[in-house]
Specification:
One of its GO terms (cellular component) is membrane. This protein has 460 residues and is α+β, with helices and mostly antiparallel strands. The chain has 14 helices and 21 strands. Strands 17-14-16-15-19-20-18-21 form an eight-stranded antiparallel sheet. Strands 7-8-12-10-11 form a five-stranded antiparallel sheet. Strand 10 and strand 11 form a beta hairpin. The chain binds flavin-adenine dinucleotide.
């Protein structure tokens, strides 16, 4: 999502609106365990399983030994922050929580090697300590590095690609327990496949990332009527390093957020009021959901349209945020030129449902060359729609999915979707090449689970 990250309180009734907020960070630890099995679930409760074991080996040798010793199904877990059932297995869940941290960095080459289990928050803090930073970040930094790159996790920026595009080398423990090193110059095809591989080629234990010098950013947040925002969005994306907007359903308003290079060193970081804003939007829905006209009328009077927020800080402290309130989410990446038409259609479709209140997020992502990257050879706009945790979310796929399809969308691998294997094959020019390499790496399909078998068209 992430909606609410960078927005300020938009309504005037400070503190008056009460609502329940879920509080739970993602976990890779088991939800419960018995002597012989362990139950696991993801951050949003949309995916769960009973696995034979959840193991967290201490080093690569232990991972290799585990894969050599057993023949059963193995699925890797990072932070469990994918909404799709990528992790669930009846076999073994393998966590890299103990293989975390910055391994080395090279300031001359502007690269850094990190263990696969490193959470993005730790990646940023350790790189910052070395005077370095990732080029871009997603809305939160709870994810593991390997999990994030494996699903093509991205931030926003018309000229900035997703995280995996900056991976220049990788170490993978194969399903047979062999330790393999791939580098961009010598293994171009393998790298193009492994950058976004949904945990299907092996266990990523290290990734070498292209990095930039540590830097400060300046954030600006402001509101606009949604029609004006849709007109301005392409220009804002062209003229700002990072631009995105959030549409606030049933209000007629959108919040623009820009982040640009900031040469100064003073830190200005107002406390986030995102949770207040979300509570207000929910409260308005609870009170007036059955009367959409009245809801819009009230929102237009409650919103402080002149509100502007400024912040300056280290890039990673501004780009990623925390999300205490849980939700479920779908996201598709459409060709850049289809972005505005698609989001108009999405808003129209979404507002047929009076229960909707979570902001919709619209971002820009640059093209790259990973075979299963949703940004494969096309600059894209990303449109994300959320439903509150505990509320129905089927419509994210059944009603918003067809709108995404109409505009040529490729789904985020970690966010809810129901694209079939045949649809995906048609959307990805190197689909067959990926499947051939996957089959070669894992001939017995031990890295697959039911979700991946369905996506890849591999019978059980
Ligand atoms: C609150 C929230 C905000 C989000 N914001 C964004 C956002 O701004 N942008 C965006 O693009 N996405 C976003 N996402 C989605 C999230 O970034 C992805 O789903 C990401 O994959 C989650 O990382 P993880 O470490 O939790 O991986 P998991 O969900 O645990 O796993 C994801 C995949 O990676 C594989 N994997 C994990 N570790 C390894 C390994 N060591 N080797 C091989 N395969 C591995 C798993 O098998 C699985 O297939 C968000 C999700 C949430 C819940």
């Amino acid at each position: 999502m992430s909606p609410l990250s960078r927005r300020r309180r938009l309504f005037l009734k400070a503190g008056a609106m009460a609502a329940a907020a879920g509080l739970l960070a993602g976990r890779t630890t088991p939800a419960s365990a018995s002597a012989s099995t362990v139950t696991w679930k993801n951050w949003s409760d949309s995916a769960q399983c009973t696995a034979r074991a959840l193991v967290a080996p201490a080093d690569e040798a232990a991972i290799a030994a585990l894969l050599r010793a057993s023949g059963g199904a193995v699925r890797c877990v990072g932070a469990g922050h994918s909404f799709t059932p990528l992790v669930p297995t009846g076999g073994t869940i393998l966590s890299l929580d103990r293989l975390a941290g910055l391994q080395s960095h090279d300031k001359a080459a502007m690269s850094a090697t990190l263990h696969g289990g490193t959470r993005l928050s730790q990646v940023s803090r350790q790189l910052d300590g070395a005077g370095l930073a990732l080029r871009n970040l997603p809305d939160i930094d709870m994810q593991s590095l390997a999990g994030a790159i494996s699903t093509a996790t991205h931030g926003t920026g018309a000229a900035l690609p997703a995280l995996h595009a900056d991976v220049i080398a990788m170490r993978i423990v194969s399903p047979q327990g062999d330790v393999i090193d791939w580098q961009q110059e010598r293994h171009a095809d393998q790298m193009a496949a492994a950058r976004v591989s949904l945990g299907s080629l092996g266990i990523i234990t290290r990734a070498t990332m292209r990095v930039v010098a540590a830097h400060n950013l300046r954030r600006k947040v402001w509101l606009k009527p949604v029609e004006e925002m849709l007109q301005l969005a392409p220009e804002l994306a062209r003229t700002h390093r990072h631009f995105e907007f959030y549409y606030l359903p049933f209000t007629g308003y959108a919040a623009a957020i820009t982040h640009d290079a900031y040469a100064g060193s003073d830190i200005q970081m107002p406390a986030s009021q995102d949770e207040d804003m979300l509570r207000d939007l929910r409260q308005l829905r609870d009170w007036l959901g059955k009367f959409p006209q009245l809801r819009r009328w009230s929102a237009a009077r409650l919103i402080d349209a002149d509100l502007t927020e400024h912040a300056t800080n280290r890039s990673f402290r501004l780009l990623s945020n925390v999300r205490p309130t849980r939700f479920n989410e779908t996201e598709c990446h459409v060709p850049r030129e289809a972005g505005i038409a698609c989001v108009r259609d999405v808003i129209r479709t979404l507002e047929r449902r009076n229960e909707v209140f979570f902001p919709l997020e619209f971002r820009f992502v640059k093209a790259d060359d990973a075979w299963l990257s949703p940004f494969y050879q096309r600059d894209s706009c990303s449109i994300a729609v959320h439903a509150a945790h505990g509320e129905a979310y089927d419509y994210l796929t059944s009603e918003i999915g067809p709108v995404f399809r109409k505009h040529g969308g490729r789904p985020h691998w970690g966010k809810l979707h129901n694209f079939s294997s045949a649809e995906l094959a048609a959307l990805y020019p190197r689909w067959k090449d990926f499947q051939a390499l996957r089959q070669q790496m894992d001939p017995h399909g031990r890295m697959l689970n039911p979700h991946l078998r369905a996506l890849f068209g591999v019978p059980a």
